[in-house]
Amino acid sequence: MNAAGQAVSESVLQAEPEAVLAALERALQEHALHDRALPAATRLLLQQARDALHQALAEGESARLRYHALFDAVPDPVSILSETGIVLDLNKAGIRAYHRPREDIVGQPIETLNPDLPPDHLMPVWETLNRGETYVIEVTNMRGDGSRFPVEVHSAGFEHAGRRCIVAVARDLSGRWQAESRYRLLMESIDKGVILLDRNFVLLSANPAAHRILGAGLEADLRSHAEEWTIVDEHGRVLPADQWPPQRALRTGQIVPSTTIGLHHRPSDRMVWISATTVPVFSSGRAEADHVFVLFSDITDLKRDSTLFDRAQSLAHIGGWEWDRGRQRLYLTGEALRIVGLEPGAHAMDDLLARLRSGDRHRLEAALEREFGQRTGFDLELQGQRGDGHAFWIRMIGEVEHGNHVSPRIAGTLQDITERKQAEETLRIQARTDPLTGILNRDAILGELDARLGEPAQAEVAVLYIDLDRFKTVNDVLGHAAGDDLLVRTGQRIAHAIGTEGLLARFGGDEFLVLCDGNERAHAPQLADAVLQALTRPFLFGEDEFTISASIGIAYAPTDGTRPQQLIQSADIAMYDCKRRSRNGWQVFTPDLAQKQQDRLQIETQLRRALDNSEFRLVYQPQVDLRHGGIVAAEALIRWQSHQLGELRPDLFISHAETTGDIVRIGDWVLREACRQVREWREQGLDFVRVAINVSYRQFVAEDLAVKVAETLREFDLPGSALELEFTERVLIEDAPATLRTFAELRRMGVVLTIDDFGEGYSALNYLRRLPIHGLKLSQLFVEGVPENRSDVAVCEAVGAIARSLGLDLVAEGVERESQRRFLLELGVPVGQGFLFAPGLPPDELARRLANSGTRPAG
């Protein structure tokens, strides 16, 4: 090669390709211009070099274009850095990301993009690149406006033109950071628990809700602390470990949807119920799940409420039901199945209908059909029978399910009301039945009578009002238990006597009512005779034998009343008249009896005002020594001069006062007035006079009689011997400590105690012996028949013998004839009173007689 060729070669080897090509083109042109012939070999070599260089430049330009296309196509910012960190190049994504022109970045140090880098930041980069690895770091870059954004930078090394360079790809993390922030915010704010477990049940993460729900028992390694937990299913049954939802999700690789489980942490004795969805998590390239997410809600309160609701339904015997008419399916809850006696499983409406009685089955079918058309709801009480034969009552409420127009469903509740219905029936029977005798009671017979009077065809009815005579005697002598037994047995006898001819009820204490047909006037009296005949047989109580009778009043509708109370009142008036006249008989109501009843009511009304109007006065009947005729004492007798009614007989108004209870006030007045009069007589010099007053049984039991007498005697400065108290035989049967104590206190005061009208009652000598009394009064009922009537003579002789044997004084009442006085003297009766000697005298008249005729000491 000549010198020129050598020079060209050297210039080609040492120059850039574009400069070498230009030199070659210039050399060839100059040699051609000056017509300098080059050796053929040299010329050929230069031409070949030129052509090769042309091709090389063309290929380089193509490569450069491809490089820039790829460089700018990368979506993330890409920077080419020199070994010392100078930016050699930057793609278009970087220009957009940093909001700067290219010339402001290229040729500048990397700190232009990231001002927070430390001075030796390239040292760890080159250490990693020299090992042939990629360096990754998260840093914060800065845009042209000074704003920052997070990036993840991946750096790799390469050589360019013999120099070491770095290519750095920066990925903008702003979106990921926002997503992660939102995720973290979501996990921290939701009320759902979220935990992440690995295959060994090591707890990798848990959100705050999970800690709050599971509490202190949430451990890092659930498997190692499994003995502290008991996991149960929704029914409270313990779940084996292989049935835990996380185990199932890991084993099957499938999601385990909402599952109710209970977690009992034994150390803290805390029970938590959750509804959990378990999701298996697969790592890249793995065929089996290696993690599991558990998303759960705290349903402890809901479970408790549900359990309480189920329990309440069971306790209240309420179940639920739903009928899908389209599918002909009937759904019943467990409690509903129990109520109607059906087994669990699929059912049709016919299964329930078959349990109901025929009439109620048709009612339910009609209600269901009507509900589909009218949609108004229904509420039925139905009766049926279970498979075991037990009857039941249910209350069934239903309505069409709203919003379902394609296949309407009816749903509602089904309540067991068997106990309520049985109780209602029991109450209905009890409400109509007298609990003692088992026959109809007052309300029931009034209802029956009201119903019959309301029907014109049945308006001819009769009522028999039955009142037992002497019942109080049995009740008082033998006690209330015997009295109750007597009422039961009397009711049985009356029921047998009337048979099916009448309707019997117990109307009051010892009062019965019979309701019968009144079309035949003779029918009611015939039933009355049958009742009286049934009571003639004695009633036996142990060794004691008692005979009772009845007084019966009869009234007819509509003649004697068109309303129940009016008709019964008429029968009561007739009964009262029968009892007053003779007892042991019957009496038909008449208008005259109604007038008498009106008079009685008028008497009772005026009686209540008599004391306040000062209408009472006392007269005094002398008690006389039958042998010598001297006055030994006097009995105070009450008289009533009514401003409205005039003079009324004592036997008429005293019985009314006993019935109304006014006798207590009247008796107190008599005691005080008699003592006042004795005080007045004593002041007149009649110191020996003793006054006897009658004490009602009502007065005896209504107050502390001994205290009342003591206070009255002190008020008028009288000794007890100035007063004699006469009691009826009824007090003899009050064998109570209080009765004995009252009599003893009165006797200690010196008060004379006498049993009045002895022999009329039914007292026993045993009671007479126990009471500390002074004497007996022989009843006028027996005295008036002596000495002619042998029965009366026998009674008087018996009473006299009793008095002598017990050391009691004896006074005869109602002495009206001389023959009676002589008989009584021969009998040994020392004292008597009656019209033979004097009627009841005004106080002044008695005082005058005492002064004129003289007296004998009492006793």
UniProtKB/TrEMBL annotation:
Domain called GGDEF: residue spans: 459-591
InterPro entries per record: Biofilm_reg_signaling, EAL_dom, EAL_sf, GGDEF_dom, Nucleotide_cyclase, PAC, PAS, PAS-assoc_C
Domain PAS: 179-215
PAC domain location: 378-429
Pfam families: EAL, GGDEF, PAS_4, PAS_9
NCBIfam families in the record: GGDEF, sensory_box
Name this polypeptide is given: PAS domain S-box protein
Species of the source: Pseudoxanthomonas suwonensis
Lineage: Bacteria, Pseudomonadati, Pseudomonadota, Gammaproteobacteria, Lysobacterales
